[in-house]
Write a structure and sequence with these properties.
Chain A is of the alpha/beta class and about 300 residues long. Chain A has helices at about 45-55, 75-80, 95-105, 110-125, 140-155, 170-185, 200, 220-225, 240-250, 275, 295-305; strands at about 5-15, 20-30, 35-40, 60-65, 70, 80-85, 160-165, 190-195, 205-210, 215-220, 230-240, 255-260, 265-270, 285-290. In chain A, the strands form 3 sheets. A 6-stranded mixed β-sheet of chain A has the order 6-7-8-3-9-10. In chain A, strands 2-1-4-5 form a 4-stranded antiparallel β-sheet, covered by helices on one side. In chain A, strands 12-13-11-14 form a 4-stranded antiparallel β-sheet, with helices on one face. In chain A, α3 (about 95-105) packs across α4. Chain B is built from 14 helices and 4 strands. Classes of the chains: A alpha/beta (about 300), B mainly alpha (about 375). Chains A and B meet through α2 and α3 of A and α1 and α8 of B.
Amino acid sequence: MTENLTAIEVSRLEKRFGPFRAVKGIDFTVGRGEIYGFLGANGAGKSTTIKMLCGLLEPSGGTALVAGVDVAKDPEGVKRRIGYMCQKFSLYEDLTAAENVDFFGGIYGMAPDRLKARRDEVFALLELTERKNTFAGDLPRGFQQRLALACAIIHEPDIIFLDEPTAGVDPIQRRAFWDLIYSFSAAGTTIFVTTHFLDEAEFCHRISFIADGEIVAEDTPAGLKKLLSAWRLYEVQAADPASLLPAVRRLPAVKSAALFGDTLHVMADAAVPAEELFAGVAGITAVEQVTPTLEDVFLHIAGKTT
Amino acid sequence: MRKMLARMIRKELMQLRRDKKMFPILFVAPIIQLIILGYAANFDINDIPVAVCDHDRSEESAEYLGHFFGSGYFTRTVEAAADRDIDPAMDRGIVQLGLVIPNGFGEKLQRGEATAVQLLINGSDTNYASNGFTYAVQITARYSAAILVERMAALGVSSVPGVDLRQRVWYNPELKTRHFMVPALLGLILMIITVMLTAMAIVREKESGTIEMLVVTPIRKLPVLAGKLLPFLFIGLIEVLLVTLVAINLFGIPFKGQGWLLFVGSLLFLFNTLGLGLLVSTISQTQQQAMMTVMFVIMMPFIYLSGFVFPIDSMPEMFQYLSKGISLTYYLEIVRSLFLKGSGIEVLYKDFIALTILGVVTFAISVVRFRKYI
């Protein structure tokens, strides 16, 4: 048995709208069972790329193989092998949880008894069994999210596309959702996820940043943070941090500084020791080096590209 | 493919049944509309209130007034002592007409001389004005003719040459507005319900984003479309039956034509309205937009230009051409002919063809747009 270890293979994928190149020949591969984060500002080409991968939009150039199927040649074949959950958790609010899932299962052509067995299984996994006869519109937001996921995975897709899957969901539900995503990944399902929450992106195995239709960085979260190895991030405490901001920014070794709660976050040249760095600024009570987050990385990359 | 269509239809029907507001909108509102419009949409003029100022007070004037008010078209509401008393009554809308009989009316008639009466008309309501005027002219002409015949007979002339217009009204012998309007209401109700509901049902899925979920599934667009439209086609046909039964049983309007022609005509008309609903859904993002578009872009021109209210023949030429592009025009023709005249296919085939052509064009445009934008 030849197991294909690549779930998505994109090569020089391009989309033009008239003279405008929304996606400029991007390349990436996503392995089977991988959780792949796709990050980018609005208008960076994120949704255009997803639409091409889901077989909704025809590429203008290049190729994209999704679950081994060429999206340009057989978009319907792609659709059968993927699940999609959009950020609005679009459900039929006047149908019950079970009816929603049954409808989507039916559309995927599942036989009634197989559908029923699979639905029970999915509902048990997502802890929806008790709510199966509740109207989707009456479900709390976190349950709606899981129901939307249930609709997306009812037909056992090889790849799940999640578009901003946790928008408007509380942190506990969000964490529980990610635990589920990990279990799918462990079972061999590939997850392609877009998100605005950069702390959430840390849950991904690999991340790529898209800006202006091009992938500007792609690595593991830890690998991306190494991009900042020439810089150090400090948390600076002071009685009145806001008043210190202009002075700190003027320091020659400082790349950027911003208010962060009641402290300042300062990114500065790693070659300059901390004691030396802030010597000229009065009023600082404590300086501590902190680990950069993906947000810092993202701001760093975005700062470079603009 | 057929399985998916069945899935779609089942889901649509489930949603329709769940919608608690839908049942009254579908079946109660049309009946209420029919009853209200059936009784209110009445252009028949009877009992026009009249102010009378009889300066003559002779036997002749009393006889003339007897004829005038004996016709049933007028009611003697105000007795005016002087001409100027008519003015305030007409101002306040108490009367629509004023009738002034001058001094010497009887005397002149007795002497065999011509005389005159004055009719004052409230022109601000053209319906009252034109009808009142017509009736008054007819009554007066008949009264003069009677006097003439009487006078000639007295002179020994037994026959007076003249042309007598004998009228016989076909199809609607009593010229009842209701017989004309109620069948047309069928067209109006059918149009409002099916265009509006189709547009709303599709736009609702756009609003909730479920259409986005549908397009990433392997379901093709045609089953989605058919699944959306077929339930409304079915509801439309039930509506036809319902309205026809109410028209016949409650309003006593005869249905003289063949039932299958009404069925086929309605089917063709529904083809048009569902296509229009679909078209609206492709250009609207929200249900509100869809509702406004249906109201102002479809319903208004349909009502005004289809001959529902104003006769097409009396429209300026440009509007007559516009009315030819409106499906309701042909459907009204079919429905009115079927109810009142009992026309057969040999007469109505042109309207059927026109409905078919318009339906195919509307549908083609909207399906293309649907496939492209949804």
